[in-house]
Amino acid sequence: MNAPMRPPQRTLSLPRPYLLFLGDISEKSFAKTAYGLADWAGDQCIGEFSLGEAAVTTGPPSMSPAQAVSLGAKSLVIGVANPGGIIPGAWCPALVEALDAGLHIVSGLHVSLASIPALREAASRGKRRLIDIRRPPQNIPVGSGRKRSGKRLLTVGTDCALGKKYTALALQRAFAARGVPADFRATGQTGIMIAGSGIPMDAVVSDFESGAAEMLSPDAADDHWDVIEGQGSLFNPSYAAVSLGLLHGSQPDVFVVCHDPTRKNILGLEGFKVPSIEEVIDLTIRLGSLTNADIRCGGVSLNSSSFGAEEAQKLFAEEAERLGLPVGDPMRGGESFEALVENCFR
Amino acid sequence: MNAPMRPPQRTLSLPRPYLLFLGDISEKSFAKTAYGLADWAGDQCIGEFSLGEAAVTTGPPSMSPAQAVSLGAKSLVIGVANPGGIIPGAWCPALVEALDAGLHIVSGLHVSLASIPALREAASRGKRRLIDIRRPPQNIPVGSGRKRSGKRLLTVGTDCALGKKYTALALQRAFAARGVPADFRATGQTGIMIAGSGIPMDAVVSDFESGAAEMLSPDAADDHWDVIEGQGSLFNPSYAAVSLGLLHGSQPDVFVVCHDPTRKNILGLEGFKVPSIEEVIDLTIRLGSLTNADIRCGGVSLNSSSFGAEEAQKLFAEEAERLGLPVGDPMRGGESFEALVENCFR
Q1: The pTM is what?
Q2: Do B157 and B24 fall into the same domain?
Q3: Which of A1, A110, A239 lies closest to B111 in CB terms?
Q4: What are the chain B neighbours of A287 within 8 Å (beta carbons)?
């Protein structure tokens, strides 16, 4: 009764192209988001904006917010993270300058942009948006289980943080290169910035988790593929709820297992072993078949960054033989990865 | 930086005993919460408070808020639901009267109590709390998977809404009657009102779902049982994420499968069949063994309300024979239910 009626909101949608904000950081590792954007959405990055003599650059030309606006930029994206996910006071004048120049601000940091009075005032003054990517859209429905038209691929993992986003991006690009119509569907912060839209699946209330995944990849043409970024792992006792809701709502036709052969234990959790690829395939098919009886494994994406070129090829061949599935590394590309791509949309 | 530091909040905790508020409803079916409270927390219900000539009563004496306060009541609980989960304007003067008399207000309705100005003002005037049970506590940690001391039982279901709360309450009561130390752990709104504490698991953000379940049943004495109210079903495409997070975080030693033999399809979802009891046992053991390798099924709680007494006994015996597990109905009690209880804490 007292809740105001809101228009139905779909996924988050970000005004693009971007100006990348690098703050005053001097360590590359804090600029992961900006590097991801430069790599995967380079055509959407008009320029870079740093404070003082920033030691880090991701490639695009350095410019002021006003210059970026004159070149068509719509949003400033905070492409760096400080420990704690905060916005240091020293960044505020630059962010206010960006708002006053006419840019919206996009942030994936823990702190809410609107909680900073100077930003709130400047945004209100210029009617600009403060977009926190960690906040999921309103009005997410409960999942219905209804089968949608079009094809879907989901990347799943033997654990967190071993290449699910990267693999999904590479597969979508490879599909498109072969003339297969495909969209990348983002489920995490960096992915959302790259795609310009998406839903932060880990921030959705549990009751609506599969409903959010259903909303993320709506009905589409029969030959169209949504390539969906996976989250967490069914074998991770912290995050399996996110993974299961995403699996049920995505109702994938095909999934690709992402694995890092050097990782033995679940990240950050003592006493939990990384499952075998076979266990992940088996459980994903069992649980995924609830909403798509035809679910199948398209192959395996191995993170082979700790191996030499020859060693990696040997590993792919051995694993492919053992599993009876194509195995490759999107970072290396080549024949093994081509075979994986072909086996997904066959 | 800008987020205020909050003291660590544990589960929701409700000031008791209660005055039950029945509003102006005339249909019993809208008073489900009040009936549940009268049945399962009768010793915490000082009295009933209705508007005008309410046609519904749940048992305790009718009285005003001031009388209830003089008898020791601490909170008024809204024990009725209107379609839409709203608070009609006609209820407001009565609720303000309760606040002014010194009672806190507890609500499980969809609308937030604090969104109603008259209630907000009265609460602030008398320093009373407006407690919305749908809001989970702050500062829920991410699940760690760490094994906790004490024993745990979780009720799971072949679907939603077929007796998981009732079964958990009955098992906790039966444990206590046998001198087995046990607490009921509530995960839904009515359960939380009955227990006086708990966490609304369906309202927790997915990333923290297993962490919330870990918080709900903390370390305990080795011979102590937490009997945890289940939510949803692993086979329900809308709510399986809630069920899996609750299973992983509860790390149950024993689970009891709740089933309604007359239900053929998942509630409200076309095309989804209710799974067999065996399927639920098998999948619960497979997924639950991630955080407790010793998980086992204690037996089956059948909702036999559509059967005659003799027919029900025959059904229990047949199912027990088929499954090799005790099968009973807590609503009927008797030997079959006793056998189920004994097999849980053996």
Answers
A1: 0.94
A2: no
A3: A1
A4: 240
- Residue A264, pLDDT > 90, answer yes
Calculate ∠ Cα B219-B223-B226, nearest 5°: 55
- Of the three residues B103, B132, B161, the one that is the final residue of a domain is B132
Beta-carbon contacts of B312 under 8 Å, excluding residues fewer than 6 positions away, are B302, B304, B329, B332
Residue A3 distance to chain B (closest CA, Å): 7
Q: Compute CA distances A161 → A181, A237, A268, A272, A277, whole Å.
A: 27, 15, 11, 16, 16
B231 is written with which tokens?
């939510």
Interface test with chain B among A111, A146, A238, by most B beta carbons within 10 Å: A238
Q: Which residues of A touch B209 (CB under 8 A)?
A: 206, 241-242
- State what percent of residues in chain A have pLDDT above 90: 84
Is A206 within 8 Å of B210 when comparing Cβ atoms? no
Residue of A nearest to B203 (CA): A205
What strands lie across the sheet with A182-185, from one edge to the other?
A: A182-185, A225-228, A151-157, A254-259, A296-302, A327-328
How confident is the model at residue B333, as a pLDDT? 96
Residue numbers of the domain that contains B100: 12-132
Domain boundary at B132, B161, B178, which? B132
Say which CATH number the domain at A32 has. 3.40.50.720
Please tell me the total number of residues recorded for chain B in this structure. 346
Three-state secondary structure call for residue B104? strand
Largest CA distance in chain A: 66
Characterize the bridge pairing of strands B45-50 and B18-23.
parallel
Does residue B141 lie within any of the structural domains? no
Residues of B in contact with A249 (CB under 8 A): 237
Do B95 and B241 belong to one domain? no
Please indicate, yes or no, if residue A340 is contained in any of the structural domains. Answer: yes
Helix (H, G, I), strand (E, B) or coil at B13: strand
DSSP letter at A309 equals: H
Q: Give A177-232 as a DSSP string.
A: HTT--EEEE--SHHHHHHHSEE--GGGSBGGGHHHHHHHHS----TT-EEEEPP-S
What's the number of domains chain A is made of?
Answer: 2
Residue A229 forms part of a structural domain: yes
pLDDT at residue A10 is higher than 90: no
Residues B215 and B113 in one domain: no
Q: Which residues from B are below 8 Å from A when comparing CB atoms?
A: 1-3, 84, 86-88, 111-112, 115-116, 142-145, 201-207, 209-211, 235, 237-242, 244-245, 248-249, 269, 271-272, 283, 286-287, 290-291
Query: For residue B280, what is the enclosing H or E element?
Result: helix B277-288
The rounded Cα A346 to chain-centroid distance in angstroms is: 25
- The helix (H) or strand (E) run that includes residue B152 is strand B151-157
> B-chain residues within 8 Å CB-CB of A207?
202-203, 238-239, 242
Residues of chain B positioned with their CB less than 8 A from the CB of A132: none
Residue of A nearest to B248 (CA): A237
Which residues of chain A have a CB within 8 Å of the CB of B204? 205-206
Q: What is the mean pLDDT of chain A?
A: 93
In this complex, do B248 and A242 lie within 8 Å of one another by their Cβ atoms?
Answer: no
The pLDDT tens digits for A168-206 are: 999 999 999 999 999 999 999 999 999 999 999 999 999
User: Does a structural domain hold residue B104?
Assistant: yes
Residues of B in contact with A144 (CB under 8 A): 237-238, 269
Token pair of A105 as six digits: 């601000």
* B1 contacts A84? CB cut-off 8 A: yes
Q: CB under 8 Å to A62, separation ≥6 — which residues?
A: A47, A48, A49, A50
